[in-house]
Amino acid sequence: MTARPRIAIAGIQHETNTFAPFGAGWDDFVRADGWPEMTVGEAIIDVFTPLSIPIGGFVRAARAECDFLPIVWAAAEPCSYVADDAFDRLSAMICDALAAGNPDAVYLDLHGAMVVESHEDGEGELLRRVRAVVGPGLPVVASLDMHANITQGMVEHADALAVYRTYPHIDMVETAGRAYRLLRQRLKRGEPFAKALRKPPFLIPLYTQCTDFEPCGGLYAGLPALERDGVASVDIGIGFPPADIAECGPAVIAYGTDDAAVRETADRLLDRIVAVESEFQSPLFDATGAVRYARQRGRPGDPIIIADLQDNPGAGGTSDTTSLLKAMVEGGLKNAALGLIWDPATAEAAHAAGVGAEFERMIGGRYGYDAEPFSARVRVEALSDGTFTCHGAILNDLTVSLGKMARLRILSGDSDVQVAVCSVRYQCLDQELLRVVGIEPREQAVVALKSSVHFRADFDRIAQEIILVEAPGANFCRGETVTYKKLRPGVRLGPGGPAN
Ligand SMILES: [Zn+2]
Q: Is the model's pLDDT at 151 over the cut of 90?
């Protein structure tokens, strides 16, 4: 290891739901949304070092010992395929800078479940291109989201991968710190680690992946104890099921200096996951049942929280399906709120009409998961420009830009339901996302959120109870409800479910 190695740092973040109705192009990576805007060169150090995003955590962990070659960082909200153009341009920015900059090592802040139009293993293809530029001997390490669908290509072309160990993801900074320690060890050692990759034979739905509960709680808590002499790192990528690619699904990866110990450890962890297959489950309501349950129990100041799992935009949902909203209104819920509905035209109409205005509106439902948009008379209760700072455990003072937002009260029927509408699609994982339009979540009797698990990091503390609803959306709960064409044969489409 040279006295002060110079590490190239870059990041591309995209979680690709190949079943979702639209993809991500170059502009989606350029603009700020729930993520910072595309950032290039030295500005990466200034922008990300204070943030709880992996590349910032990496800089904080490494800066006492290393210099940096910051290249580019870009992210787009989860959706369907990443356009070839966007991927090729971002890859070229990284590879050109590596070729010109001659760094001592490379760190990449990646997701691990990116699918590109022409490359179903997006990160594997990026790492292959990086490896082709830097050669076989230069250390290349990446951090990955826990939802990575880890592939043979990623493992082949990277020296090591470090994966988040919490869902909700509150350990991005710590994960980047582990990535740095692996990179440091790799630089000192001067030769590659032994590696092992194992794949359990079943997909695990998002709503059962939460590390606040079993079985993921125990599986992830047990990882540090598996690291020992000769085994530097052991991780689980829990997988992102709505990605129709051959290597979709959970994976175990292990790295170290003792090849036999690395393999044995990976086998042992694989066995642990397989042994708890039947425990990956949580009860699901339909929309009507969830509303009935919440109406009986929810009280202002002690809310029932309903998670609208399948329309989670953080997993590629459109965040505009209306089955749950319809059930909330028809079920006569009082003191109830729902967020976030992604409907730029409705937000625009609310801003044009102004606070206090009432009008008829077709809300959401633009992408076919519901029969039609929800039609209602609404009153504009509050407006926001949608740029504000969140304070929950995941976002940690990150400023988001969701475009024009509005709070609308549904006037049809005898319910009392309000909706928070936004112009940039984003998962409702932080209380500030509702407060910005004047909804104080704790004061509601019922709060419905388009999120699978991340909302728990900030809403758990105010919830009387959290219930899960399976209403229409692109982030399906049960693999057997869709058709996979590329998934490798024999994989069960859910724990204990039918095989592909
Ligand atoms: Zn994730």
A: yes
